[in-house]
Amino acid sequence: MTNRISTGMLYQQSISTLQAKQASLARINNELTTGKKLLTAKDDPVGAGAAVGLDRAVAELERFGANANAVSHRLGMQEAALTQAGGVMGRITELTVRANSASLSNEDRKAIATEITSLRANLIDIANSPDGAGRYLFGGTQDGTAPFARVAGGVSYAGDQTRRQVEVAPQLFVADTMPGSEVFLRVRTGDGRLDAAADPANTGTGLVGSFGVADSGQWDGGRYRITFGAGGAYDVLDDAGVSIGSGVHASGDAITVNGARVVIGGAPADGDVFTLAPAGTRDMFATIDRLIGALNMQPTTDAQRAAQQNALQGAMRDIATAQDHLIDVRANGGAQLGALDNAAALRDSQSLTLESTLSGLRDLDYAEAISRFNLEKVAVEAAQLSFVQMQRLSLFDLLR
């Protein structure tokens, strides 16, 4: 059987070939215009799917970057606020040292108490510092309202104890600002490890001097009471009231208890009590209130003056420990800022890798595309010429 090749078939075939070449040339022209070789998903279904996944990864890195910027802003404002708080506590320390001078009158100490009261109010304002975005720095996750409020007898805290963990890079988290409960409320007393105090009911002139843990291997972390009798005799009682040591005290002597020591000056009276125990916690505002109370005392006897001096010395130690605590909080914030820098470097590295991979999938190789364009152009011209020649094929040409 012989297949018939018609003029119409040749004409249609030439038209189809010409249109296909023109479509290919137009596509290459679009690639050159956009600079992309992956114009639609049908061009490379596998590559298009991979590109979509990479786009999502790049967008995720951008979101991580936005998280990092927000946390960096808040941590920077926390640093500024803590610097201010440290300045306030430093000024209170200066005033307390001045108030501890024997040359000052009761009125002088009242004037100092007035300034410290103003500094306490300033410290509350710092604790309620906003972050500039409608939130508060020290409220924990309950940061929609001011966390601290003045109440009768002290300060109340409306925040929580939770510290946000913010993802700033894939599987890399950075802590947000610390909750106010950890910054301003749970502050160690004494030297941060040990605390010593005179009983407010003491009637002698005994003064708490230096104290600390002299031998960590012997210190058992217990609570002890040093009770004085006549002639400077003393007993050391444990928390159960059992005597574990005794002696005769002379002013300025150190009394040692299971690796801890405390120096007591002056002359304790019969029945006076001093305590030696692990440092507890107290909020900064209560410590300042105790200091203000000591400054407003009106001592008229040696025992009252000794009680005031013990209170001032204790407040001075507690404020110094609070200053160290603020430095520790600032160091923690600095560590988080350092982690943010590391996260930024990680994001930049990953973003560069992703962008490079995306470029390989989507971006056009201009040299190769121009070469293909020229080849397709030649093919189109050849198809056009072939079509022209085909049109001339007719039996009528042979009848001329």
Automatic annotation (TrEMBL):
What do the Gene Ontology cellular component annotations say?
bacterial-type flagellum hook; extracellular region
Subcellular location(s) of the protein: Bacterial flagellum; Secreted
List the Gene Ontology MF annotations in alphabetical order: structural molecule activity
Q: Which residues belong to any copy of the Flagellin N-terminal domain?
A: 5-142
Q: Which InterPro entries match?
A: Flagell_FlgL, Flagellin, Flagellin_N
Keywords on record: Bacterial flagellum, Cell projection, Cilium, Flagellum, Secreted
User: Pfam families recorded for this chain?
Assistant: Flagellin_N
A GO BP term, please? Answer: bacterial-type flagellum-dependent cell motility
**Listed PANTHER family:** FLAGELLAR HOOK-ASSOCIATED PROTEIN 3, FLAGELLIN
What family classification does the UniProt entry report for this protein?
A: Belongs to the bacterial flagellin family.
Instruction: Write down what this protein is called.
Output: Flagellar hook-associated protein FlgL
